[in-house]
Design goal:
Number of helices: 5
Number of strands: 4
Order of helices and strands: EEHHHEHHE
Helix content: 40-55%
Distance between the termini: 57 Å
Strand order of the largest sheet: 1-2
Largest sheet: 2 strands, antiparallel
Structural class: mainly alpha
Length: 188
């Protein structure tokens, strides 16, 4: 259980922060960029949840918790990606669950005939924004993985989550019926 009694520590005033385990790194480190961007996506999902309910909201609530786990995973140095009692790691089972949910949501939707513009409903617009933020987090995680060991399941999770948020946004747009379609060259 986390217990915070003081919010500010002044430890980051010099431009560094601590990873899990205490190692100090620059705040613009790719690992920090990755989990900071995951935190940003989590905030956008929180905004989307202001207008969701039922199974969609339950999925998003679980995803928000998993994003905190993902942030902990990305902030934990080392090459052992086995989850433990005190070590949070994203697992392939979590990636598989996202895939299964994508498949279930996609069952009743017509195939795409155009690219989709973000919008349609407030929840869908926020989920499209969250999807793009997750894509940025994925890019930062891949960049970090060139320099340090990053859990491969965490990168897969980010990739799959962006797909999940895309499909969920269509699902919430009346199974795609309220999607805003791109009209190529419409303003020429």
């Amino acid at each position: 259980m986390v217990k915070l009694t003081k919010i500010y520590t002044r430890g980051g005033d010099g431009g560094e922060t601590s990873l899990t385990g205490g190692e100090r790194v620059s705040k613009d480190n790719a690992r920090i960029e990755a989990y900071g961007t995951v935190d940003e996506a989590n905030s956008v999902i929180g905004m989307a949840r202001l207008t969701t309910s039922g199974p969609a909201d339950q999925m998003l609530a679980r995803i928000q918790n998993e994003l905190f786990d993902l942030g902990a995973d990305l902030s934990t140095p080392g090459e052992d990606f086995t989850p433990g009692e005190m070590t949070l790691r994203i697992t392939d089972a979590q990636v598989t669950r996202l895939e299964e949910e994508i498949d279930r949501m996609n069952e009743n939707m017509q195939p795409l005939t155009s690219f989709i513009l973000p919008g349609g409903s407030p929840a869908s617009a926020h989920l499209h924004l969250a999807r793009t933020v997750i894509r940025r987090a994925e890019r930062h995680a891949i960049k970090a993985a060139r320099e340090v060991a990053i859990n491969p399941a965490a990168i897969k999770y980010l990739n799959r989550l962006s797909d999940h948020l895309f499909v969920l946004s269509r699902h919430l747009n009346k199974e795609g019926a309220s999607d805003v379609l791109w009209v190529p060259g419409a303003t020429r």
